[in-house]
């Protein structure tokens, strides 16, 4: 059996970023927090906390912290079933930035009694958080269930390669070709983001190395495209009015890129998170294109 005073100390350190912050949250001394973590690390024979500013979890520490969240969720569900009251349980979720900027937040708001720890990562990589045991659920593009998880198809996020009319005149007067794409600056969320390269390959039939700005903001993509800073794959949900008004234009009309999204949730806490899963599926169904048959 784990000592849950020790586990709570670990979770509080990772939540607040410091031993002092954990001590304040748990109303004990910093020395008590240090003793609990030292005893837990000694018992397990491995480091759990990277002592930096802020403190971070080792791989083992992150897995153990998720265990604490799992237990709290299960306890809250049992108390609810018995008619009792409990404090808000914490849920750690990985989700891509474009979902967060469009359809995802209303689902979170629809489920009271939970505290959310939202990790933002590319839809092609968010499943990795589940595999490492660091989150309890994730929105991901991986259509195969991670071991120990249940999978629910959500639909397709439609992206359009979009920019300002002036940018098209400046860079694509000769049309959208491998050569013009290799010259015109693109917008890329981060180095994991492959959407621009995938669309370019889809349109011209071969890989293209595109020069790019790195801009880790969904709304920043829209603003940068409006200003003619570059072209990028932007969710149609964010720019319908811009496309209708002509403020933004597609590089190639009628050539979107659809990305399938699924919700994966760990089976251990699946029942406790059933209301959240239902809210996620409703919100996605109202905003996304239907999943491919």
Describe the structure.
- By secondary structure, the protein is an alpha/beta fold.
- The chain has a domain at 157-258: D-Maltodextrin-Binding Protein, domain 2 (3-Layer(aba) Sandwich).
- The chain has 12 helices and 11 strands.
- It has helices spanning 4-16, 19-26, 30-44, 59-81, 97-109, 126-131, 165-171, 178-181, 195-204, 218-226, 236-245, 274-287, and strands at residues 49-50, 56-57, 89-95, 114-120, 137-140, 149-163, 186-188, 212-214, 232-235, 249-250, 257-266.
- Strands 3, 4, 5, 6, 9, 10 and 11 form a 7-stranded mixed β-sheet that branches. It has a two-stranded antiparallel sheet with strand order 1-2.
- α5 links the parallel β3 and β4 (114-120).
- α2 (19-26) crosses α3 (30-44) and α5 packs across α12.
- 36% of the residues are buried.
- The mean pLDDT is 92.
Look up the CATH topology of the domain at 157-258: D-Maltodextrin-Binding Protein, domain 2
| Radius of gyration based on Cα positions | 22 Å
- Cα distance spanning the termini: 46 Å
User: Considering DSSP H and I runs of 4 or more, what fraction of the residues is helical?
Assistant: 40-55%
Content-based structural category: alpha/beta
Which band does the percent of strand residues land in? 15-25%
In CATH, the homologous superfamily of the domain at 157-258 goes by the name: Periplasmic binding protein-like II
Number of helical runs?
12
Q: How would you characterize the largest beta sheet?
A: 7 strands, mixed
What CATH first level of the domain at 157-258 would be assigned? Alpha Beta
- Low-confidence spans: pLDDT under 50, at least 5 residues? none
Identify the overall geometry: elongated
H/E topology pattern: HHHEEHEHEHEEHHEHEHEHEEH
Query: How many DSSP-defined strands?
Result: 11
CATH architecture of the domain at 157-258: 3-Layer(aba) Sandwich
| Average of per-residue pLDDT values | 92
